[in-house]
Design goal:
about 0% strand, mainly alpha, single chain, about 70% helix, 5 helices
Length: about 90
């Protein structure tokens, strides 16, 4: 049996995988398991504390977006939304 013959090498490989820092998995089930481990305290969340973006610029962007939304009429907002939806549906 192949696995029985190489059990030590296999175990070392598993230990190496567990040692390095893991990002959140891209698949849904793997991500759910990661979130559950973080929630139960089995793992620490390894999110970077800073995303490197200027916080003042982010705040200005939020203010600008709100000001633009307040300035637009409901008809214009609806027109923009219709146009965006048409573009989304056209791609599929």
């Amino acid at each position: 049996m192949y696995l029985a013959d190489h059990r030590d090498e296999f175990q070392q490989g598993l230990e190496a995988i567990e040692v390095r820092p893991l990002r959140r998995p891209a698949d849904v089930i793997g991500n759910a398991i990661k979130v559950a481990r973080i929630a139960t305290g089995e793992e620490e969340e390894d999110m970077p504390p800073d995303d490197g973006k200027d916080k003042a610029a982010q705040e200005m962007g939020r203010k600008g977006a709100k000001a633009r939304a307040d300035k637009l009429s409901p008809e214009r907002r609806a027109e923009i939304a219709r146009k965006a939806a048409a573009k989304r549906w056209k791609r599929t």
